[in-house]
Amino acid sequence: MAVNYRERLKRVYAAIHDDPARSYSLDEMAELAALSRFHFHRVFAAMTGETLAGALRRIRLNGAAHALVREDAPVAAIGRAHGYPSAAGFSRAFRAAYGVTPARFRARGLALPAALEKQKGGQAMFPVEIRNEEPRWLIGLPHRGAYHGINRTYAVLGAELAARDLWRHSRGMAAVYYDDPAVTPEADLRSFAAIAVPADVACPEPLQRLQIAGGRHAVMAFTGPYTGLGAAYDWLFGGWLAQSGAALRDAPSWELYLNSPMDTAPDALETLIFVPLEDEA
């Protein structure tokens, strides 16, 4: 019987997401993946593109960053809930990843990068242009639940793509967001974690294919932590839209990620936000 490595690695990622505060040993993770301790780390790194230590750090700090923005718990308590029992250790790790202390990150209010905090006269520091886009093809997996939890689905997607040697076709990570989190219960939010690919790339199950319609779009070039994207959307659909006079098309917004949190500091993450628009009359 063929070994299904992607299912084994899914169990590892699921365990980290389910209990980020737990101290995991290499032996425990190897057992969870049903691999020997000797082979586990090499298989994990080869199939996911990150080390186990890197995955733990990324998932914990990403979760902590979202918690700092969304919750009122003390900073030290958030650190403990995400695998950092020492407040000093949490502060050092967070600062190394985000460039600021957890307290300073929370003080930004909406976790905006510094550039977006410096809006003047309603003009954001991140450019928005209206342009015509060609249709694009995505292959990926649906996600249901909080948008900030989509990284769990990306972990599963990564294992599926690696197992099928599909990463080589990637034209960038992408995500489609179907619902407005202001009016939709968090548990019912629908999104799609994906990579952009050429139209002729095969899409084996359980992966799904999705076509993004081309046409007129507002495109915002956002630089900074993903925790700031919600505020960027608020500005885009508020101040910018009112000033532009553009009419929204009945289609979901989507994002294209130009780099990866696996090897890029949060303040340097680059995201293109695409908002479909009606054609000009």
Automatic annotation (TrEMBL):
Going by the entry's taxonomy, the superkingdom of the source organism is recorded as Bacteria
Cell wall biogenesis/degradation in keyword set: no
The HTH araC/xylS-type domain sits at 10-108
Asked if the record carries the keyword Transcription, the reply is yes
Q: Which GO terms describe its molecular function?
A: DNA-binding transcription factor activity; sequence-specific DNA binding
One matching Pfam family, short form? HTH_18
Keyword vocabulary terms for this entry: DNA-binding, Transcription, Transcription regulation
Q: Which SUPFAM superfamilies match?
A: Homeodomain-like, Probable bacterial effector-binding domain
**What protein name is recorded for this chain?**
AraC family transcriptional regulator
Q: What is the scientific name of the source organism?
A: Pararhodobacter marinus
